[in-house]
């Protein structure tokens, strides 16, 4: 579980608040205890655990109680997706600080419009091959690609600009100034939706697009009709990701740039 889960939780809270006269929401775990996560900092509709507040709604969204998963599951079984939940109906808001937003704005001032990429994923089933990433960068010379680096992936690809971020929120600041975001499914894809950034998501066969994708301004490439939800390295997923062509991603970039008037 990660940042994407907590962005989805904030999205659930946002939808509830929007449809219930701006009522505030406290996010709780399976024991009913109030939770907090750094990605929620600054969110005015959420009640912090130490806050004295009244009249709020308790929303269960926590480890072992994620809305898009059918429980129970194990590493061996992988996920079965809850087909009644659609993340696109629960768009969060992320409230970044001036310092966090400044990282992206300063980068854009120096480089001009840029496309943000992240080739790395800790989940092997969500990785597009590095050979494909290198070919993409070489094939679109009119695009300034920026790769955000972090402790999990501190080495940039050749031919890209790069910026090191130390927190997920800093990475969101870089994302907020991007023209387009490109990567496999991840928490940053949910962040792009929250920030209104057009994205090209190299999807593949692991995650369920109908449950976790389909946000406004999100274009999915290589979406499978039969997501496996596997937690283990999967030949089915690797084959699907490998078969997603550089040309299809290039066309995705062109579509997003044309749709949203981006340079």
Index terms:
single chain; 263 residues; alpha/beta; Rossmann fold; 6-stranded parallel beta sheet; two-stranded parallel sheet; 14% strand
Q: Can you describe this structure?
A:
The chain is of the alpha/beta class and 263 residues long. The protein has two domains: 3-67, no CATH class; 103-259, 3-Layer(aba) Sandwich (Rossmann fold). Helix content is 33%, strand content 14%. The chain has eight helices and eight strands, in the order αββαβαββαβαβαβαα. It has helices at residues 3-19, 98-111, 130-139, 168-176, 187-195, 209-212, 235-243, 246-259; strands spanning 25-28, 57-60, 115-118, 145-149, 161-164, 180-184, 199-204, 218-223. The strands form two sheets. It has a six-stranded parallel β-sheet with strand order 5-4-3-6-7-8, sandwiched between helices. Strands 1-2 form a two-stranded parallel sheet. The mean pLDDT is 95.
Low-confidence stretches: none
N- and C-termini, Cα separation: 35 Å
CATH fold-level name of the largest domain: Rossmann fold
Secondary-structure element order, as H and E?
Answer: HEEHEHEEHEHEHEHH
* Radius of gyration computed on alpha carbons: 18 Å
Major beta sheet, strand line-up: 5-4-3-6-7-8
Give the CATH class of the largest domain. Answer: Alpha Beta
């Amino acid at each position: 579980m990660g940042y994407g889960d907590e962005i989805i939780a904030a999205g659930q809270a946002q939808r509830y608040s929007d449809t219930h006269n701006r009522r505030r929401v406290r996010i709780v775990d399976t024991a009913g205890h109030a939770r907090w996560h750094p990605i929620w900092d600054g969110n005015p509709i959420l009640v912090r655990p130490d806050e004295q507040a009244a009249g709020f709604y308790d929303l269960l969204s926590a480890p072992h109680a994620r809305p898009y998963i059918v429980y129970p599951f194990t590493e061996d079984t992988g996920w079965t997706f809850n087909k009644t939940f659609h993340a696109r109906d629960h768009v969060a808001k992320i409230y970044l600080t001036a310092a966090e937003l400044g990282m992206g704005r300063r980068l854009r001032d120096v480089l001009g419009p840029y496309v943000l990429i992240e080739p790395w994923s800790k989940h092997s089933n969500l990785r597009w091959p590095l050979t494909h990433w290198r070919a993409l960068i070489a094939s679109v010379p009119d695009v300034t690609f920026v790769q955000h680096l972090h402790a999990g992936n501190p080495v940039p690809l050749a031919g890209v600009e790069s910026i090191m971020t130390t927190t997920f929120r800093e990475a969101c600041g870089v994302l907020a100034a991007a023209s387009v975001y490109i990567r496999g499914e991840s928490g940053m894809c949910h962040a792009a939706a929250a920030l209104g950034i057009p994205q090209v998501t190299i999807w593949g066969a692991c995650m369920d697009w109908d449950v976790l994708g389909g946000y406004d301004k999100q274009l999915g490439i290589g979406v499978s009709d039969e997501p496996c939800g596997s937690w283990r390295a999967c030949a089915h997923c690797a084959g699907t990701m490998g078969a997603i062509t550089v040309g299809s991603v290039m066309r995705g970039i062109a579509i997003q740039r044309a749709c949203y008037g981006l340079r």
